[in-house]
Amino acid sequence: MNKIIGKEYFSEKVVAFEIEAPLIAKSRKAGNFIILRVGDKGERVPLTIAGADKEKGTIRIVAQIVGASSKKLASLNVGDYITDVVGPLGRPTDIKNVGTVLACGGGVGVAPLLPIVEAFKQAGNRVVSVIAARSEELIILKEEMEKWSDELIIMTDDGSLGEKGLITEGMRRVLERETVDEAIIIGPAIMMKFAAQLTKEFDVPTQASLNAMMVDGTGMCGACRVSVGGKTKFTCVDGPEFDAHQVDFDEMMMRLKSYVQEEKQLND
After folding, report:
1. φ and ψ of 55, to 5 deg
2. What is the pLDDT of residue 263?
3. Are residues 14 and 126 part of one domain?
4. Residue that is last in its domain, among 89, 120, 146
5. In sequence order, what are the residues at sequence separation of 6 or more whose Cβ sits closer than 8 angstroms to the Cβ of residue 203?
């Protein structure tokens, strides 16, 4: 198991893998993630399951190449094996027929958003998706998002695809024109912070899938702790999704910078 049977670069720094993992493919639900390790002494890397094929027994993951571990993962090719793949982990997304869902993804956050959009649509909801990136080449999974969305709005910083502007501008247009019953936001922490502020303005219940640092994935190490409603939660076992209006995004962003210097040394 854990054999790579497919590899695709979405852009220079974003790569997708299809991995043999039949037990995970069979039991995973939208919102679940895995933790993988490349090499016996490799770092444990959490990645959301971007899709699964029960018949083939495979899962799809998408990784952004930002540090030593992600570079090591990206160096693997079809036919290679990933040392460890553990999952499905975390609490799955609470999928219900609520009416209209606003699904918002920034950058590689579109990868974990896709199975959630699919699940909400299959549950009978109207799904309006807004995805964003700096430029056209960084927009991923466009066709898949179109397939499962009633409407797809694309925002780019430079206007090279869709409309020019931030994701919150696309979100605001939807929120001002129609009633939204629930929102889900996934992406960089700073994006989720401002997206959550916007949906709070319109009193729309919102879930945010957090990308906190993780080590063991069982809640033992405490590395992934976040403050939600003034209480400490562990992203790996209590999340990764939380009430976005209760998350302390500023604290989370500070914690994400904890090992910047160590990562820089590994990359030098």
Report:
1. -65, -45
2. 53
3. no
4. 89
5. none
| CATH number of domain containing 193 | 3.40.50.80
Phi then psi dihedrals of residue 177, to 5 deg:
-95, -25
**Which residues of the chain fall short of a pLDDT of 50?**
none
Residue 34's alpha-carbon distances to 13, 23, 48, 264, in angstroms, are 20, 12, 6, 25
What pTM was estimated for this model as a whole? 0.90
Amino acid of residue 18 = E
Cis ω for the linkage preceding 112 (within 30 of 0): no
104 and 53 within one domain:
no
The single-letter DSSP state of residue 258 is: T
Cα–Cα nearest to 131, from 122, 121, 139? 139
Q: Which two tokens stand for residue 191?
A: 């994006």
Cα–Cα distances in angstroms (integers) from residue 204 to residues 23, 127, 195, in the given order: 36, 14, 11
Residue among 156, 106, 154, 98 nearest 127 (CA): 98
Sequence-distant (6+) residues with CB within 8 A of 45 are 35, 36, 37, 38, 63, 69, 70, 73
Q: In 3-state terms, the chain is what percent helix, strand and coil (to 5)?
A: 30, 35, 35
pLDDT of residue 228: 93
